[in-house]
Amino acid sequence: MVAVDLASKWLVTTLLHGAVNAGGLLSLMASSNSGIGFSAMRGQTVAVLLLSIVALLFCARLLTRVQTNVALVALALIVGGGLSNLLDRALHGGQVTDFVGVSSWFVCNGADIAISLGVVLLIVSSCTGRKVLR
């Protein structure tokens, strides 16, 4: 997951010049972001890095307490996406590369999609009534 996300970011920044309509609401466009989701905390690099590290450590700890396969996949997506964005920040002066444009609403990357999907899976799996963590 991490290698695929970092490779896709490299390909986009190397080969894509300008925006490309990917059909409907989607487009491909290289941009950078020093914040977190929806550009929150933009320009607060140290705080974003510390928050990312704490969140990754917390989720990694939760991986040791998982009781369902869905929760395991969900946390793996969250940790993989978080690690990929953290490495991207380390390689690019505190910024992540975003390239998937969704209408004019936001631009994200594969790691962001993995994190979001993992959070949704974790919420859904915890609503089933089965114990997700021990």
UniProtKB/TrEMBL annotation:
Keywords tagged on the record: Cell membrane, Hydrolase, Membrane, Protease, Transmembrane, Transmembrane helix
Any one GO molecular function term: aspartic-type endopeptidase activity
GO CC terms in record: membrane
Entries under Pfam families matching the protein: Peptidase_A8
Family matches, as InterPro entries: Peptidase_A8
Gene Ontology biological-process annotations: proteolysis
TM ranges: 46-63, 70-87, 99-124
Protein name listed in UniProt: Unannotated protein
Lineage, highest ranks first: unclassified sequences, metagenomes, ecological metagenomes
